[in-house]
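for the recovery benchmark. tokens below, seq after
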């Protein structure tokens, strides 16, 4: 799935840090608010997250947009993260935590660089514990094009389990000053005793230069005749080579209902 934007704690201290061209570590935190309008009533969902990544080799930032440095350098990494969610006035003020670890290893062969991925997350809302496992395999079809297939399982203590798969494609076109990135994915979740859930996403990002990018995303969720569309706009700006700030807004609605969902997020990340 497309990754969310991040907010680094202590931005004031980060701004004073010395930027470096290459990096091995990346740290961040996220904050977002989602308003769910159910027609007769509504509620808010607040999410706060922190996380970080360690790269097995130093990542070269001279190959294109700074936001895409790891992608362009075929970098391998291990990432960890934590998120806290507070559902205000929804499901009796349900709170939840999520812990996760993931990794990507790129076997950078001259003929066809191979990609191996894996992840595990545990979500612990008040009603149930949910474990999600996934593994992925793909390749760099060109230096700036990846295709990855992922399979996984979602296991809930209350409610059974579900299998899922996803196919993701990403391509970057370098420009004389900046780049254009197109991404797309299709996923399906096989739920016991229910119809499959189908999810489609497409996104485009225009980097006006190597420091600043603007993008948009469209997604569709389809389950048992219930369809929901999501539209989003986002941006990320690297203030220095090691510090970035970002923002995102998304809007979604469920067809033939009065349900509308809006999410605002702000963020930043720091590399060193």
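predicted aa per position
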């Amino acid at each position: 799935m497309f990754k969310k934007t991040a907010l680094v704690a202590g931005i004031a201290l980060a701004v004073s840090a010395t930027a470096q061209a290459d990096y091995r570590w990346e740290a961040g935190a996220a904050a977002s608010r989602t308003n769910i309008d159910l027609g007769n009533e509504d509620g808010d969902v607040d999410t706060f997250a922190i996380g970080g990544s360690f790269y097995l080799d130093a990542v070269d930032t001279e190959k294109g947009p700074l936001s895409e440095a790891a992608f362009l350098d075929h970098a391998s990494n291990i990432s960890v993260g934590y998120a806290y969610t507070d559902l205000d006035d929804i499901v009796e003020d349900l709170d939840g935590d999520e812990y996760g670890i993931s990794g990507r290893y790129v076997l950078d062969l001259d003929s066809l660089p191979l990609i191996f991925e894996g992840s595990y997350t545990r979500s612990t809302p008040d009603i149930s514990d949910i474990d999600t496992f996934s593994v992925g395999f793909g390749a760099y079809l060109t230096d700036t094009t990846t295709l990855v297939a992922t399979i996984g399982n979602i296991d809930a203590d209350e409610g059974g389990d579900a299998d899922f798969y996803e196919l993701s494609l990403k391509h970057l076109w370098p420009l004389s000053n900046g780049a254009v990135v197109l991404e797309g994915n299709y996923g399906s979740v096989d739920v016991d005793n229910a119809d499959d859930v189908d999810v489609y996403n497409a996104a485009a990002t225009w980097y006006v230069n190597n420091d600043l990018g603007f993008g948009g995303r469209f997604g569709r969720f389809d389950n048992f005749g219930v369809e929901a569309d999501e539209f989003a706009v986002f941006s990320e700006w690297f203030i220095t080579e090691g510090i970035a700030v970002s923002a995102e807004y998304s809007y979604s609605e469920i067809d033939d209902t009065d349900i509308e969902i809006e999410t605002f997020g702000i963020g930043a990340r720091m590399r060193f």
